[in-house]
Amino acid sequence: MEQSTCCTADGIHVAIIMDGNGRWAQHRGRPRTEGHLAGAAAVRRTVEAALELGIGTLTLHAFSSDNWKRPEQETGPLMELFEEYLRGQIQRLVDNGVRLHVAGRRDRLQAPLVEAIEAVEEATRGRRRLYLRLAVDYSARHALWQAARMCGTADEMPVFERLLARAVHEEEPAPNVDLLIRTGGEQRLSDLFGWECAHAELLFLPVLWPDFGAEDLREALQEFQRRERRFGALVPETGVESLV
Ligand code: IPE
Ligand code: IPE
Ligand code: MG
Q1: How many domains in the chain?
Q2: Do residues 82 and 63 touch, judged by C-beta distance below 8 A?
Q3: How many whole angstroms from 120 Cα to the centroid of ligand 1?
Q4: 101 in a domain, yes or no?
Q5: What's the confidence (pLDDT) of residue 5?
Q6: Is the dihedral of CA 232, 236, 238, 242 positive or negative?
């Protein structure tokens, strides 16, 4: 089986399905949108922690394509929050050597949000300390279907991988995910990852996303380093440098 052909940044790839914002707010008798606001603070904390821990690629799943099924009074403020986050973080990301890419569909996003995405991607292009991927309107199935449609007669896996990246507006294939974390206690994928998680280690945590912090990430990495990865072989694959 061919491995991913391109690596945007060195180091491991951690992906997080950031779930539990709504319940966090509901437990406090607050509207769900407050949970998303608290979730944005957790995103900032987690990016800082990823930088400190030397993670190479961090994918944060923020909004699945199925999340459009939610009422407009939830999706509207969420989209505003994404835009605010992107516009507000540009300088910080640049200063910290973070390259940001928003993965997913863009045809259903409002023009100002697409502009904010393009601005931050442009401003952070070439930064290499951390590759930060924010998944918005992301569907693994849709991406695979789009890539298959574009594929035509291309019969080499690296070509297909590049088409898959293009389907989520990414310039090149992301490195394979090493560790996938889902917060909020649910143990499902919700159409949020596919190809790049073929050999990912999975970790389901009860913590609600707004309560997630540097210590949770550190513990998750410790758990990851205890896992024995065999990739189908009989002998464990070694070589993961200790981060924690
Ligand atoms: C995840 O939290 C954030 C998004 C899907 C946008 P949820 O909003 O799904 O929170 P819960 O699962 O209802 O608690
Ligand atoms: C998946 O969570 C989306 C994100 C966390 C970004 P959901 O809360 O939408 O997923 P389901 O409905 O529990 O499958
Ligand atoms: Mg949820």
Answers
A1: 1
A2: yes
A3: 25
A4: yes
A5: 36
A6: positive
